[in-house]
Amino acid sequence: MKKGNSGETEAGRRITGVLIPLVAVAVLAACGCRPKIAIVVDPALDTPTSTARTQFKNDLDAAGYSVVETVTPFADPVAVRSYLQGLSESRLRGAILIGDIPRAYQYVEFIPANPALPATTEEVISYQFYSDLDGNFAASPGYVSPGGHAHSYDVHSGDVDWEIWVGVLPLYEDDYEATAEAINRYFTRNHQFRTAGTTIPRAFLEVNEHYSATTMAEHTSILADLQSGPYSWTPWSAMASAQFFFDSPPAGLTVAQGYAALSAGVADFFSGAAHGSWAAHGQLDIPWAETAASMPPHPATTTPIKAYPAWAILE
Ligand SMILES: [Ca+2]
């Protein structure tokens, strides 16, 4: 029987591989050292999302996380950050902010790699304010928030790395009823995903306006990237049924074919990527994305809709 570096046998490793998850869950639960996720809930969304949230919290618990939830009318982003900082000593991994949670802002400068292009500055919403819990956010003397925000910072210093991830299920267009419906739909799908796995009945479909291939070698490289590259939608994009569309004259492929396939109802999960890049077609635009929750036919196609995807990601 072969021995590994630490001296254990192949059989030992196999047995260990079976036992460790069961033992680990029991030990982590007992010692209180499970990785922790904080859920911060806007009080106005507490009752209307309560049932779905309970399911979500149970799912996280079953996945080995410890969940701490607060339903608090935080006065400002400093109070939210202080709350998260208080949890950060106890294996806090991430925070999910639900609803109208106070937002901090940062004044940032974008310096292009191309020296011929000018730097641009902008005041942006800062969820980094909650991800970096031990760094310093400050306003320099004389700094005035361009948007008139009370908590806006132009200096970020110290340990600027992020300690936790932050997820946001925001208040949508100041409409609490629509937001609650959307959040409940999300948690329902999340539960389906966790319990039924990643199976989808038809296919994953991606239309990507960023890329275009001029040779078959380029086509093959782009396709491989979309299937399993850093920006791919694995595991769905790696399935044999996945379909990808980008402009590739050597392969006779166009983005228009992709939108037609979407309208023809081939997909359960659609990803459309356009970004507003200078190279984009502009076939995926904001008005269409704004109404994509109901997945209307794309204006570029006249094909009658046979079925809509269950999920759509537009970027
Ligand atoms: Ca940090």
Strand and helix map with partners:
Layout lengths: L9 H22 L4 E6 L8 H13 L3 E6 L5 H11 L4 E8 L4 E7 L9 E7 L1 H4 L3 E4 L13 E2 L1 E4 L6 E6 L5 H21 L7 E9 L3 H13 L14 E5 L7 H9 L5 E5 L12 H5 L20 E4 L1
Helix pairs in contact: 2-5
This protein binds calcium ion (CA).
Calcium ion binds next to loops.
CATH class of the largest domain: Alpha Beta
User: What's the structural domain tally?
Assistant: 3
Strand arrangement, major sheet: 2-1-3-9
Say how many strands there are: 13
What is CATH's topology name of the largest domain? Rossmann fold
Q: What can be said about this structure in brief?
A:
By secondary structure, the protein is α/β, with parallel strands linked by helices. The chain is built from eight helices and 13 strands.
